[in-house]
Design brief:
Elements (H helix, E strand, L loop, with lengths): L5 E7 L12 E6 L5 H8 L18 E6 L3 E5 L10 H17 L3 E9 L6 H12 L4 E6 L9 H12 L6 E4 L8 H18 L3
Parallel strand pairs: 2-4, 2-5, 5-6, 6-7
Antiparallel strand pairs: 1-3, 3-4
Length: about 200
């Protein structure tokens, strides 16, 4: 997909703040500091539309980015950051859960995982929860440029085995620095949107 227009729309915390134009939404979920903002910026060929931070746990809202007036990327708060208070994590959890299970325009969840490391317990719990709720998932393994190509397949195997990746779920290796996986991920996103539009007779 060629991105000609991308804009930040809103940081939402309640359903009544979500956009009402019914465009398809692609959610990004992952541990704090896993590189979701960098992934968004690479996908839309912008340097800093999605704000990156060296402070884990900084994203506390659902950040909506409208792409080409065709779809939204929705960056959800990162999970698994210990220094965030339990009460705040509980609030985030309820917000994220209600969004992911109730948002009718949600088409796909991109679960972002660091390729360099085995999935954390939180990564595994998140994936299991997404599958239990029958949500379409694509695993995006970031920071591929940090690992020699000769070791890519070894790391991919570890992630797939630890998650017990279900048949039919997509897996894309990605690098925000070098653009590895960008075109492949756009293809996955386009298929997820197109499949639903076809089901709806659009």
């Amino acid at each position: 997909m060629k991105v000609t227009k991308a804009e930040f729309i809103i940081s939402a915390v309640r359903p009544d703040q979500y956009p009402e134009d019914a465009l398809p939404e692609i959610a990004l979920a992952g541990r704090s500091n896993v590189g979701k903002s960098s992934l968004i910026n690479r996908m839309i060929s912008r340097k800093n539309l999605a704000r990156t931070s060296s402070t884990p746990g900084k994203t506390q809202h659902l950040n909506y980015y409208r792409i080409n007036d065709d779809l939204y990327f929705v960056d959800v708060p990162g999970y698994g950051y210990a220094k965030v208070s339990k009460s705040l994590r509980a609030v985030w959890g309820k917000m994220i859960e209600s969004y992911l299970t109730e948002r009718e325009t949600l088409r796909l969840v991109l679960q972002v995982i660091d390729l360099r490391h085995p999935p954390s317990k939180d990564d595994i719990l998140m994936y299991d929860w997404l599958k239990a709720n029958e949500l379409p998932v694509c695993i995006v393994a970031t920071k591929a440029d940090k690992i020699p190509k000769s070791r890519w397949q070894k790391h991919i195997k570890v992630i797939k085995e630890d998650l017990m990746l279900r048949a039919g779920d997509e897996f894309v290796m990605f690098s925000a620095e070098e653009g590895i996986g960008k075109d492949e991920l756009w293809e996955v996103i386009s298929r997820s949107i197109g499949a639903l539009e076809a089901d709806n007779g659009i």
